[in-house]
């Protein structure tokens, strides 16, 4: 219960941070060209630069830029990165809902428990995706 109370007290900061991160991930392909003008280091994959191998997220920027292909080929959504993008879009919608609940002072323990559960599942799924990617590409 102490964890729930701690999270409840700081829930607005968690929600704002997660919302900002989700928006940044979706907008990164748009702002990457702008960032590239200042420094190419900001948009390079560090993992690829150090190891010379693709990382699990390689192609993510290209994927989001070409998201309009969904209308031509629905299987585009079933690419592993497409599922991650859908999770990020879910995160943005969920955080807007959470901020609405915070504003109405209606944050409940069930909402926080759901938040912890769904994000635990997402983290586990992402780690499994990375492990499978590393095994396939080794």
Automatic annotation (TrEMBL):
Regions crossing the membrane: 12-31, 76-100, 112-135
Keyword annotations: Membrane, Transmembrane, Transmembrane helix
Name of this chain's protein: DUF2752 domain-containing protein
Protein species of origin: Candidatus Merdicola faecigallinarum
